[in-house]
Amino acid sequence: MLIKTQGIVFNYIKYGETSIICRIYTREKGLKSFLINSARTAKGKGKIALYQPLNLLDLVIYDRNDDKLTRINEARLDYHYQSLPFDPVKRGVGLFLSEILFKIIKQDEEPEQVHDFIKSSLCILDQTEIDINNFHLKFLIKLSPFLGLNMESSDVLAEEMETFYDLKLNKPVLDAFEQLKDSDYGKECKINNSIRRELLHVLIDFYRYHLDIGELKSLPVLIELYL
Known about the structure:
This protein has 227 residues and is of the alpha+beta class. The chain has helices spanning 45-50, 88-104, 111-127, 135-143, 154-165, 171-181, 193-211, 219-226; strands spanning 2-15, 19-26, 30-36, 56-62, 72-77. It is built from eight helices and five strands. The longest helix is centred in the C-terminal third of the chain and has 19 residues, at 193-211. It is globular.
């Protein structure tokens, strides 16, 4: 059966001589793996461009009620990025987001709400020029309730980090968390680089404890860019 849905590309891996397996978070069916034939050929350049990480797609897919590979009947871009692929800082943020999303988003999440939050966040990242340096921090904080994680206040964060890691958070880090937690993406937050870096590691450790995400290869790139 064919169904229409929207999707967010998380990543792809090479498969065989010319194909790829692409992991896409669909609005209707959650996280799915698709076999894309002939994507790595001269004639398939358009295909490989379509399935770049974080691309937002309109899809017609073959519906399966299992975790096995399936196929895409039709695909086109749902949103054309204007700055995200070209701005080095935004591209670094996007690299980080695509990696951590691939590690933390599982099949059992409520796909519609999570998909819509991620999609709207990526569109804002592409369109805004305000507070880009804090975007990834706000994203991690705002995403947490969709995943059933308790990051509702600085007191809760401090208590959990002390319990999990025997780490006592200092006041500037907790103040920065509170400022970001209550801030929309388009609102600028004044946080210095050292506090931003420390809070980033705290948030990643929080996710790592609950979701076992392991190491993040994109993190050094993000830190080198502007932290």
